[in-house]
Amino acid sequence: MVDHLAMSNDVTVTLPRVQERIPTVVVDDAHVVYRIHKGAAGNTSPVAALKRMVSRTSAPNVREVHAVRGVTFTAYRGEAIGLIGTNGSGKSTLLRAIAGLLPVERGAVYTEGQPSLLGVNAALLNDLPGERNVTLGCLAMGMSPAEAQRKLPEIIEFSGINQRGDFASLPMRTYSSGMSARLRFSIAAAKQHNVLLIDEALATGDKRFRKRSEARVRELRENAGTVFLVSHQLSSVRDTCERTIWLESGLIRMDGPTAEVLKEYEAFTNGK
Amino acid sequence: MAITTLADPDSGLPPAQLAARHGLRMAGQRPSLASYTRQLWRYRHFISAYANAKLAASFSNARLGQLWQVLTPLTNAAVYFLIFGLVLQQTRGMDNFIAYLTAGLFIFNFTQTSVQNGTQAISGNLGLIRALHFPRAALPLAITTTQFQQLLGSMIVLLGIVLATGEPITLMWLTLVPAVLLQTVFNAGLTMVVARLGAKATDLKQVMPFVLRAWMYGSGVLYSVELFAENLPGWATAIVQFNPMLVYIELARVALLENTPLLNDSLPLTWLVAIGWSVVMGVGGYLYFWRGEQEYGRG
After folding, report:
1. Could you say which of 1.20.1530.20, 3.40.50.300, 3.40.50.1010, 3.30.390.30 is the CATH number of the domain covering A1-6+31-115+193-272?
2. Which pLDDT tens digit goes with each residue over B157-185?
3. Where are the annotated coiled coils located (chain B) (predicted)?
4. Closest Cα of chain A to B246: distance in Å?
């Protein structure tokens, strides 16, 4: 953390800024614990369930996972921050906590405005045509109907779903997984977010779309937003983010300029 | 360097104070009731677009499309008339049993489907909820809106049946409008209640059909409401008299039918109960749903 601050002061010297750095996300010693329903595991027989109801113990098939164990950092306007770490290191959980979708058990997360989480799992209405989904998505993000109508062609164009015929008027269930991921990304990226959280979404889609979406993320950033990017694709982190936070088992292992963190991370993963 | 220190007075500040200095808000905090209501109002276009989309989606796989909006209630009415009117002879000397039955059936169905879909309002839209931020009350309200649109279809069928069975058009018909609007407010509140319950208690979906079935029998939909007064002890009849569904159904029957058996003799009192339920459930349901706002989509 101290290293990083020193580093960014260097940056202010080389690129003199008139404005002070404005924090958009402050995470203060955040702990996230979530509960998983294990489903049919454990004793789920009717008798056991009845016994639990009588003795008032909670079901055995709920398990607590302490996914984030005390993370502290501050993100500023105009920054793009990559979150990396091995599977299960708490990256996605941290993003959800920043988005306000998972409560923090201890500590606090402060944000400017309402961060938007953009994940590949963000399903819209699969029975409806792509166009309808675009309009709905825009309205759900708080746009006016006129604005949503205006953005519609732009979003369809950006997503590229019409490259193989008129798919925009077909129900989304007929789309390939790549197509619907592209459309979802395009919808979410159509709005200027103060804080945009992207969970692996850039990894979907073909190479051309990836290039386009990386360009769009840079654009969002330049318009004074903060972008978080969770990805296993180190190349897209390298291309889009200048700062990277490396999480390991729910703790920050390293926080600093992307090049340095990635070097350490690659050494770590290769050494295993 | 002096400028840098001036420009960056934040360094060394504890995170909580830094956040307060720049007006950052705690993530996932519940907005105040007033600002929540304002937000919801700004999302009214989303609510109606979502309701229309749901309605269109529900018929998207059927060949006859939106015609089912009218066909479903019609078929329903035919089946129930066959069983309760012809086989079980529940008409009990009633002038117009078909109209009596369909009025009860359609009005009850409005609430029933709202509640049924309401239990899924949150749990069935987790993808949307986890991806985008909007006041979650938009979802149960959209469900009520969809069902209201369905009801309009049913009402056309109902008016057709009422006319075809020889009822005259009177000024009383106009009272159907406020009665249905009161019921809509009641439904919206109730849908928000079950939406919050259904978000946590996933078993509710299994229980709801039984609750609704019992409620339907307690609302005098399929048989003459006189049976309650005849066969139940006094206190039980009193409870049934305050059953909101029975009240809304009776208001619709009074509006449309010349001569219909009623459990509540006093019409002004019936209206008062209808208004009371609509206010209590509408406001109460909204408050209850709002209090759970930060929990939806978690877990």
Report:
1. 3.40.50.300
2. 899 889 988 888 888 899 999 999 999 99
3. none
4. 35
